[in-house]
């Protein structure tokens, strides 16, 4: 049965990759990661591209690493919220939620962080890479019972064979995924951390938007 489920899953991944038009490369001391941004989440895609172009992520690093869950990068919640408290007269800047059931927290997914706002709007400059872990059918059943959300057959198979963090589905916007460098992302998620998940040494990164020629080569 698994063979018949995995074949359409693989075809779906290939077709999605062919359709997307924007790719970004993360360079770290651990290596490079190539991200495919989803055209289905245009507000987050465009915000991320603009943040890169304007240098919003300059000097940023992976600042919170929860092993087997996610690797968070960019600005910390506290810094963002403290800055906003200093200027309550300035309207909060957020990216409107673009949460879709077909874009979920599988291993290698790219998400946008947020605070506990009811609209589930995202921060402008905080991202995370999903590490997660493989889940059993019983674990997925428990998450469904707790959240009231149902996983599709494809999602269940993905979470059981590839892994991820399904408990985050429906609460945060996923707007891309890793297409190269998954082992680098695994290395980042394995760095030594404190008891509060702070990396003992900040792993800085730089971001670069791939050119059309590079994307064409990548898709071959």
Describe it for me?
This protein is 34% helix and 22% strand. With 220 residues, it is α+β, with helices and mostly antiparallel strands. The protein has a single domain, classed as Cyclophilin-like (Cyclophilin, Beta Barrel). An 8-stranded antiparallel β-barrel has the order 1-2-7-5-6-4-3-8. Strand 1 (22-28) and strand 2 (31-37) form a beta hairpin. It is globular, with a radius of gyration of 17 Å. The two termini are 30 Å apart. It is an enzyme of class 5 (isomerase).
Provide the fold topology.
Layout: H1 2-19, E1 22-28, E2 31-37, H2 42-53, E3 61-66, E4 70-74, H3 77-86, E5 109-112, E6 126-130, H4 137-147, H5 153-161, E7 174-180, H6 182-188, E8 203-209, H7 212-219
Antiparallel strand pairs: 1-2, 1-8, 2-7, 3-4, 3-8, 4-6, 5-6, 5-7
Helix pairs in contact: 1-5
Index terms:
disordered N terminus, Cyclophilin, globular
Can you summarize this structure?
The protein is an alpha+beta fold and 220 residues long. It has helices at residues 2-19, 42-53, 77-86, 137-147, 153-161, 182-188, 212-219, and strands at residues 22-28, 31-37, 61-66, 70-74, 109-112, 126-130, 174-180, 203-209.
- N-to-C span: 30 Å
Determine the fraction of residues in helical runs and give it as a percent range: 25-40%
- Form type: globular
Which band does the percent of strand residues land in? Answer: 15-25%
Class by alpha and beta content: alpha+beta
């Amino acid at each position: 049965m698994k063979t018949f489920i995995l074949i359409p899953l693989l075809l779906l991944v290939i077709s999605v990759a062919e359709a997307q038009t924007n790719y970004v490369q993360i360079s770290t001391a651990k290596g490079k990661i190539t991200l495919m941004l989803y055209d289905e989440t245009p507000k987050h895609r465009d915000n991320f591209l603009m943040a890169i172009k304007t240098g919003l992520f300059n000097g940023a690093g992976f600042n919170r690493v929860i092993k087997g869950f996610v690797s968070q990068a960019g600005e910390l919640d506290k810094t963002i919220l403290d800055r906003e408290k200093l200027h309550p007269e300035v309207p909060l800047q957020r990216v409107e939620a673009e949460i879709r059931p077909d874009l979920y927290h599988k291993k290698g997914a790219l998400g946008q962080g947020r605070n506990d706002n009811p609209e589930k709007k995202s921060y402008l400059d905080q991202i995370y890479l999903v590490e997660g872990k493989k889940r059993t059918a019983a674990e997925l059943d428990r998450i469904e019972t707790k959240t009231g959300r149902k996983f599709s057959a494809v999602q269940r198979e993905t979470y059981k064979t590839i892994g991820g963090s399904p408990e985050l589905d429906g609460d945060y916007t996923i707007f891309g995924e890793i297409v190269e460098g998954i082992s680098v992302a695994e290395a980042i998620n394995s760095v030594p951390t404190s008891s509060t998940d702070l990396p003992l040494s900040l792993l800085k990164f730089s971001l670069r938007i791939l050119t059309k020629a590079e994307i064409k080569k990548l898709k071959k």
